[in-house]
Amino acid sequence: QKEVEQDPGPLSVPEGAIVSLNCTYSNSAFQYFMWYRQYSRKGPELLMYTYSSGNKEDGRFTAQVDKSSKYISLFIRDSQPSDSATYLCAMSVRQTGANNLFFGTGTRLTVIP
Amino acid sequence: NAGVTQTPKFRVLKTGQSMTLLCAQDMNHEYMYWYRQDPGMGLRLIHYSVGEGTTAKGEVPDGYNVSRLKKQNFLLGLESAAPSQTSVYFCASSYGGGGEQYFGPGTRLTVT
Q1: pLDDT tens digits, A99-109
Q2: Helix or strand or coil: residue B39?
């Protein structure tokens, strides 16, 4: 069993829809939870970062963490064609001097105009 | 401010050949990382460095070596390339060793 599980999709939605992306994890030692966005043939870029259970909002994006259920979500409101990308969840645990990241496999999202 | 850059962008190797991938960052970050990304496997950590002159193994270190002789550079070496090392390689850096990592554009490597 992988430490981080993510539905690979693909997910296709019309412009303006609310998108829900999810990950589950098995390691209760994970302390920090992130969402990265990766456009085709580019490197991932950090979208959201949180370290506690609950919700964190940034513009059209909301990250939700439920540590008791080992479940994290990313919601995108009023989705735009420019949101079309692969979304990677990531979680970190302290290992030999660094908080190393464990990534999900990514969910590919397409927003149709 | 270029951020994180990687050289080369593409490379094709024959089995048994060697090569070095170069990562450079201009953000004065202490921590640097090398990942590989494969379909269905996600990003996996190969090696990382918590400062100049230090290196440590990640999740999938076999077949790779690294060096961090200068703070701004992190080199990934393949001594004897194998087809299983065909992948996209990403370098990343971070200031404080937390989750906020900045990624380079990637190197696409094919080993035939």
Answers
A1: 788 999 999 99
A2: coil
